[in-house]
Amino acid sequence: DVQLVESGGGSVQTGGSLILSCAASDQSSKTTCISWFRQIPGKERERVSTISRGHGVPYIADSVKGRFTISKDNAKNTLYLQMNSLKPEDTATYLCAAKSSCLFARYNYWGQGTQVTVS
Fold first, then answer.
1. What is the gyration radius of the CA atoms in the chain, in angstroms?
2. Which of 35, 66, 101, 102 is buried most, with the most CB atoms less than 10 Å from its CB?
3. Euclidean distance between CA atoms 31 and 25, whole angstroms
4. Which of 54, 41, 64, 61 is nearest to 103 (CA)?
């Protein structure tokens, strides 16, 4: 089955930067649409950014627009999230998720997450 493994989290000071990675075990149609989510305990999971292997402009949430950038390296089956100008409110567990189409609501595959702490 598809496995997603996140890495790159850590602790940074306000204004700092991190690059998160999500390595996918599968580059088939199962992972055509890949997203970054973040989860803060007690709060609803937030979709941060989405990118498709096909057409379309990547989605970036308003809360991170201008600071975060999503990208992918198809040769490495890896998704990235460049996070700049980090704020304490960006503190969360960041997870990547994949599905076969961005038109579908449900994500079929999830990683375990990587913790980002901004202080």
1. 13
2. 35
3. 10
4. 54
